[in-house]
Amino acid sequence: MNNFTNKSLLAIALSGVLTGVSAEQRSSETNEETSNQTSNQTSNQTIIVTADLQNRNVLELPASVTVIGSDYIEQKNAQQLTDIINYAPNVNFASGSSRGRFIQIRGVGERSEFREPVNYSVGVVLDGVDLTGISTAATMLDIQQVEILRGPQGTLYGANGLAGLINIVSNSPTDNFYSKLSASYESFSGRDLSAVISGPISDETGYRIALKQFNSDGYMKNIHLGREDTNNLDEFSLRGKLAYNASENLTINTSLFLADIDNGYDAFSLDSNRNTYSDQPGHDRQETQAIALQALWDMSSNYQLEAVFSMADSKLEYGYDEDWSHIAICENTACDTDLHGFDWWYSSFDNYQRDNENTSLDVKLRSLDNGQPVNWVIGAYIRDQQVELDRQYTFAASDFASSFDTSNTALYGEVNFALSTAWQLTTGLRFENRSADYIDSFDARFKPDEDLWGGKMAIEYQLANNQMAYGLISRGYKAGGFNTDASIPQENREFDTETMWNYEAGIKGNWLNNQLIAQFSVFYQDREDVQTKESIVRSIDSGVLVQLGGECPCSFTDLTGNAAKGNSWGVELDSQWLANENLSFYLSLGLLNSQFDDYQSYTHVDADLESLPPVPFDLDGRRFAHAPSYQATTGVNYYFTDQWQFNAEVESKSSFYFSDRHQEKSDSYQLLNLGLSYLQENWRLRFYAKNITDEDVQTRGFGSFGNDPRNFYERGAYYQFAASRVVGIAFSTEFE
Description:
Layout (H helix, E strand, L loop, with lengths): L22 H4 L4 H5 L2 H7 L3 E2 L6 E2 L6 E6 H6 L15 E4 L7 E4 L16 E5 L2 E2 L12 E8 L13 E7 L7 E9 L3 E11 L4 E12 L4 E2 L10 E13 L4 E16 L9 E2 L5 E17 L4 E19 L15 H4 L8 E19 L6 E20 L6 E19 L4 E18 L4 E2 L2 E16 L2 E12 L2 E2 L11 E2 L2 E14 L4 E13 L2 E9 L14 E9 L2 E16 L2 E15 L2 E5 L10 E4 L11 E10 L4 E10 L15 E11 L3 E8 L7 E8 L10 E6 L4 E10 L1
Parallel strand pairs: 6-9, 13-16, 30-34
Antiparallel strand pairs: 1-2, 3-8, 4-5, 6-7, 8-9, 10-11, 10-42, 11-12, 12-14, 14-15, 15-17, 17-18, 18-19, 19-20, 20-21, 21-22, 22-23, 22-24, 24-25, 25-28, 26-27, 28-29, 29-32, 30-31, 32-33, 33-36, 34-35, 36-37, 37-38, 38-39, 39-42, 40-41
């Protein structure tokens, strides 16, 4: 097998970002075929976006889509979605847990989840299983491609697709026997071991099994406990696929996966560095078992019926040391108890246990493209989710429990009209009903029921054989909801549905004799009834509400409200250039300008306390949170010889606000990543270095907040950081 040794495969491996071609798919290509057809191989790679209703080529889809392939995932030695997500233009994420599972697209998306139910803006799907909000289970084990669709997905995905959709596709069973073994070791005792085996069971049935174990001590040091593993990672993944050709016209695909995550969470420091003082380090655990069944029935030469049933059962536990310290933190400091006669410090732990069961059925009937001027898809969707929460909190009189059941039912359709040989019109529409039933141990009860709709209209123009331009108008929505805490003013207990209109134009295709692949788009997004976070702030000692900015050990009650409006506009570029058979470059670029219109956020207080009125925080004209004005990833791949490959990559991102409730911002950054690979017939050895200049990258932050008794809870800023410099070595070998 010579799939790694052929330097002409550079045409396929334009960093592996766009192609999504896996190693076993490349193995059938010969030296003679690729050495003379480098440019053609680049242009002829058909990358199908499987998330789309009609499974279209990414370069023919009238929308902003980034497809990240298996080569790039391997090049980054990626373990989780957030290891690669920075490649996609205008896509960001927030931590606040062991992994950055809170995703924002074009500045729209959530940043945390605690007691209140959350309606998510970015959907995450893995092999047909909905992992929205629980994407820690979406490890990068044996992944074929990651499809990132930007902009509202009102037709495609509905209520959880206001900002976009991330669709993750693992590799399928192979026609012939194939196996792969991989291992790596890196800084902070990071090590992983994975194995894949695939092949036929019979002429009608094929299988694929993959498993992976990743461990790391993490990059935080707990000074108080004298440990360097309180922010550790312990992640196990197991996936299986079975493809069964029941008949000439019927195929049944089964996907199963298991994720067992047992990570630590000790990420915030009173000194805003990587040294913590916690006496009760937290945890971030998740056990997910899931199955998806897909049936494809070619009813005739003109029609195909597809049905996808999925079921996921997840148990999650998330807990953290709220004071980030220990009871002796004041000894021999200015806040020493002996100097004041009372304790300045407080100690508390907050723990959340969730049972999340999610079942869905999606049935669609589509016409097959047989050169007809009209092609269409109609479908029906049912989703039921049950979330049981149990919260234990130090300062709560009793445990808090809640039950939150949601049901989504939708009818949708899409029609493509070939207006001429050059022009095509696509229209889509989705009607959805979402009902919910919430009850908790404080006797709060909400039963919202609302009808929602979204859709799109796109016009395409074929510029040349491999180039197209498009215009797109789309509408997305996110359901309204409620705030459960009884201390929240009654007029703020419920909030409205958010909607967004997206106006977009773009051009994509191949240029320069098929050496350049590029997608370019500009967009404008108009948001109505923007759902934003606000706060109630209380003194822990007395329960008295205090002004934002007061110096105290405080607790915060989050609530969601509606801003009047918001808008954003930007530019997105996704490109790869094959300079010659040995040298290629890639560049992704996102520019984003966003702002609220005529909106003030408030810290709410009791009406009785006239001396402590609500504190307004003017957001009019301010950017959205987690919406950097620019981000870019640029890199080069170079083959010195048939065996030696070098990669250099720079990731850049501007500063951005951490929250809509304060003015604290991240720092801008530029990260340098390097890689050197040695390739042989059936094995690869790779040396890599991430963040080689050891920059501090902030992924979550709090401002106007005091949590350090040593300075008497003076307001300050606190950050959670991404990994520091990581250096590693990875080895993989394949067998047929």
